[in-house]
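Please think about what follows:
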Amino acid sequence: MGSRRMLSRQEARAVYDRIGAWQDTQAFYEDPALNTLVVQGAFEDARAVFEVGCGTGRVAERLLRERCPPEARYEGVDLSGEMVQVARERLAPFGTRATVRQTDGTLTFDRPKGSEDRIVATYILDLLSREDARTLLDEAHRLLGERGRLCVAGLTWGAGVLSGAVSHLWDTMHALRPAWVGGCRPVRVQPRLDEARWREQHHAVVTAWGVPSEVLIVTPA
């Protein structure tokens, strides 16, 4: 598994530039997991929300419209220029409350330590190599305030017959050609967390249409 080829940043950008707004067609299996994340993330008292891999801005729109207080500010970043454009258009009604910018895929950010109340990463850790995922988790720990929360959702391994078969098929397709599945594959994030650095607030595996997703909410220890 250590030799598994992952999409390079350039390849990932090309894939998601091509997908664009079609990314939202995955809502049928993502939304149940995202519903859990939105509720368990306690965004009602979040003033500063930072999202890594914001995609089309679908999660951000829901947070700003339904959960975050009026004074909350949101910033999202994404590697794909097409995704950034779609997200900017979607979030335009929120004016200066929402900012979206394109990055080169770097997973460290020029932001002050402890500056964020919530960091959101949905269906992004399953795209990253183990090393890049560790970098992002370390950066999230640096950026979160004392009562901040890291809110993660992504593809994982299924425990039931159907979800197990789906996750194994997904993983096989990724092994053959990562671009076929957008570079994503099933991963378990919870075991990767250093218990000395994180406190778990919520953990669940949510399965929709046979596709299992892990939802994890943690705070800095």
